[in-house]
Amino acid sequence: MSAYGDIKRNRSVAQLKSTVWGSQSAPDSGDNIVIHHLTLTTARALPGLLEYLGAVFAKEIEDGLTYPQEGEMGQETFEAYFFAADVFVGVTELSPGTAIVSEAQQDIELERQRSGRSWDECIAGYYYIKPNYPGRSSHICNAGFVVPPRQRGRGYGSLLAKSYIHYAPLLGYQASVFNLVYVNNVASVKMWERLGFTKAGLIPRAGRLRTKDGEGEEYIDAFVFYKSFTEN
Fold this sequence. Notes:
This protein is of the alpha+beta class. The chain is built from seven helices and nine strands; from the N terminus they run ββαααββααββαβαββ.
């Protein structure tokens, strides 16, 4: 729930085709991922997926380092928040070097690509896309990203971010705003700058976050990032 109330997607969109993403400098590195477009309805058809995504997100909230929410994140609350509109899930390739790294849309079924692996083994990360504002400003979107702990340090966050810039305009959005990118999340700040986002503002003491040692809390400033999808 935002300050504007419960913001929903203002138009329906057909399921977008999957895309393959990987390092352009090392396409055979084995760290390619396939991005799949999901809604709550399509995710429910994949046994155990929602529960896995919810558990990972609940731990992220408990850690208190990246998202502003605090307290228990139950499954119902997670689904209402994260699946309010569109969700994109990145699945790792089963065999290194077998995919063609391409942003071209392809027919790749998530369950088939999973190939019997557990969700913990194959989910590289996931993110939502939904309007940042209601009504007359709903053409500006927002996104929230999660990379499971076991998948970090492999560049998946950057691949998810690049795919976001690909998919958001296909959903009809004209621009993106990130309301709270905490300044101590240096990797995230540098990534969005590298992908052409601009700092639209700085909010002092925007988050009461846990310290990295987990022993206390501290107030951290946050950047507001913006990118237009209609301007070169």
